[in-house]
Amino acid sequence: MYTVTSFWICAHIHCLFEHAHSIKHALSLSLSLFRAKQGHLKAMYATAMMYSHGRGTGMDDKAAAKWFRKAAENGMAPAQYR
């Protein structure tokens, strides 16, 4: 039988999981952005996708377009259609 305490614990565990998930996305974006600025093609595309979908940050269409353009200019075929 569930008690108020068990529901409270479950709610907090879920909250911690969601927070950890957002931290993982933020770290992924930071690493991807760092590598994209160094000229890594896959990182440029990954950075654009993260900005496009709001992973690790809020959705930013302007930043996504910038990184899709850079990836496309360097030969990343999927970026040419974004």
Q: Main beta sheet: strand number and arrangement? A: none
Mean pLDDT: 82
Summing up helix and strand content along with how strands pair, one would put the structural category as mainly alpha
Span of the ends, CA to CA:
51 Å
Number of strands: 0
Low-confidence stretches: none
Fraction in helix:
over 70%
Rg of Cα set = 18 Å
Elements, N to C (H/E)? HHH
Detail the topology: elements first, then pairings.
Layout: H1 4-37, H2 41-53, H3 61-73
Q: If you had to describe this structure to a student in words, what would you say it looks like?
A:
By secondary structure, this protein is mostly helical. It has a domain at 26-81. The protein contains three helices and no strands. The protein has helices at 4-37, 41-53, 61-73. Helix 2 packs antiparallel against helix 3 (61-73). The termini are far apart. The model has no long low-confidence stretch (mean pLDDT 82).
